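Q: Here's a chain of 345 amino acids. Please give me its 3D structure as tokens.
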Amino acid sequence: MDVSAHGLGSPDRILVWGAGAIGGTVAAFLSRAGLDITVADANAPHVRAIRERGLAITGPIETFAQPLAAYTPGDIAGSWDTIFLCVKALHTQEAAQQLAPHLAANGVVVSLQNGFNELVIAEVVGGKRTIGAFINFGADVMEPGVVQFGGRGAVVVGELDGGQTQRLARVHRALLHFEPAAITTDNIWGYLWGKMGYGALLFASALTPASIVEVLDSREARPALTSLAGEVMAVAAAEGVAPLGFNGYDPAAFGPRGTGAAINASFDAMVAFNRRSAKTHSGVWRDIAIHHRKTECDAQFAPIQRMARRSSVAIPHVERLVSLMREVETGARPLALENLALLAG
């Protein structure tokens, strides 16, 4: 990729759009390291708490309170060369439109989210002003102004076309202040598809009151979970993408050549990874059980459903997952282990 086609901007001045679990954690660490960080968040009480007391990071990794310049979207002013977008997938379109006036002409938006939000962002600000990212650390907003950083995980950034650019290196250097093991990649789509396979398992766990570890460790649940991840991997293959693994998730194990031994080894590795985290349940589960709000399910799986139809790939378990999640979101179905049996079909 031609580096001259990309704005380089200031390495130390970043706008973080969404100061929740992901954005808040990253913003606090980068600000503490001396970078010029501003955050924008739609949750007015959360913004007010940050302005009054700083953003408190709690949990087993580190505990500190970091002063931050915090604003609601309507109050933010100025432009930035680098904007980290850290909202839930279902809010991506609205957030991208809100932040667009604050993105410098040669600036870049980095999607620190779950799902294929890069596609939505690119429609709003342009593909040449979009960088992809894959994240798998554990964090939760506990109350206004307080984020629990429960466990470290993979952090990867990459240009959408696989190029190695100066701006990618700049973003990577910034993220190293948060995650020392962060890396760049020439296959960000491989990581994003890998996360969707793993993410499907987390969505399934959120159909129940059980923890991530309890569901992934369940021998009774594994056949349905295996089929679910396998369908996502099949759509990736139809799209010509080679998914990449991380933190115990092995895409090949859930592909057509995966063996029982490889599948169980991957599940066991994912269980071991999640046991190390203070985050016991997924953000999806918290949306349902704690916040009583709509999850990212439709936003994350709609692109996969469209691609599956286009390629004539059967995804019955994914379709059942989406249907069950909609019922759980609305309260028509309770959180229950029996939902995993329904997922199996």
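Q: Can you summarize the key feature?
A: Residues 188-205 form the longest helix (18 residues).
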